[in-house]
Amino acid sequence: MELRKSAGSNRLDYVDVYRALGIILMVMGHIGFGDIFDHFIHAFHMPMFFILSGFLYNTEKNATISIKQFVKKKAKALLIPYLAFSLIHIPVWLILEGFSYEPLLNLLLFSTKELPVADALWFLVALFVADITYFLLRRFIKNKFIFHGCVVVISVTGCLIKPLLSVVLPFALGPAMVGLGLFDIGCSIRSAKNKWIFPKLLDLKWYFWIVLTLGTSALIFLNGYINMRSEKYAIVPLFFVVSMLSFFVLITLSKFICKIFGKTIICSWLKSIGENSIVYVCTNQVVIIVVRYLTSFLPETSTVMLLVKLLFTLVLSLTFLWCISLFIAKTPARTLIGRFNTDSTKNKREVGVGA
């Protein structure tokens, strides 16, 4: 299946659709579609972005830039949105909850504990730390076996610190350590895509895709509950296996969508979510609060009515988020997401969550 690029840009359409699928699942998780759905999506819907970041990691280009340049680029893309939207959310939080030092302390120190309104912002800090750590390890460790060995040790340690020691590390270091392993999986898949079985797994036939999807779903429910923010990984090896298999499932699904709906409004809408995915991460929870208030009049007298209310909340939330993302992307408000010069950034593939 040919991998198409958007006309006049370096963006890969299927990558933006992949991001969009993850974002929609994230929004559904925050709305709350039940414990079974929550168990299912948490097994992969945050790991998928760490793996994508590794998959898009440009080894050759990053080998030629300085540490300072790389840190500055990632800080602009990830830390500026984290701080900007955290500050924006504080007044909302003060109105809803009243004043407390703890969320502010978490904002500046822990990142994975309760934040003002938007707990999802933890991901930006964790991805920043994982990005920088991966870059430094590649820069200073030339032996590939030692390099991958260090990644494995760091990542497994990240999985075990909180369960064994009941310690929450500052600056989202725990999830970042785990994310480092997922990042390396993505980068390894990218570097090995012309070897062995990876080309087939990245471009599955529909019948193999169904088998892999069913098998991966079974493994998700075989494992325990996963939540990277809460640092719950259940059976650690199975967590990494499920994360990798889910990446293949979702990449192939994204390519199918691009092939079938490539010239339709559906695909255009999904690509717009992928292009501005960081806006959705930063604003979805406050939007959901507003939408819940607007839909509070809808009854929940039966399972069907509850499902209708949830779906209506989802549609309305995604509509508002789409409007917000367009406003931020096309006005000076784009500085909130670290885009200071649209002419130099709008066509880069490294825009959006998981880049």
How does this model look, in words?
The chain is globular. Helix content is 70%, strand content 0%. The relative contact order is 0.17.
Extract low-pLDDT stretches: 342-349
Instruction: Describe the largest sheet.
Output: none
Helix content: over 70%
Please tell me what the overall shape is.
globular
- Residue fraction in strands: under 5%
- C-alpha end-to-end distance: 23 Å
Estimated radius of gyration: 20 Å
Structural class determined from secondary elements: mainly alpha
Quick gist of this model?
With about 350 residues, this protein is mostly helical.
Key attributes of the depicted protein:
355 residues; mainly alpha; 70% helix
Topology:
Blueprint: H1 13-31, H2 35-42, H3 47-55, H4 59-62, H5 67-97, H6 101-110, H7 122-140, H8 144-165, H9 173-191, H10 198-201, H11 206-222, H12 236-261, H13 265-275, H14 277-294, H15 303-330, H16 342-345
Helix pairs in contact: 1-12, 1-13, 1-14, 1-15, 3-9, 3-12, 5-7, 5-14, 7-9, 8-9, 11-12, 14-15
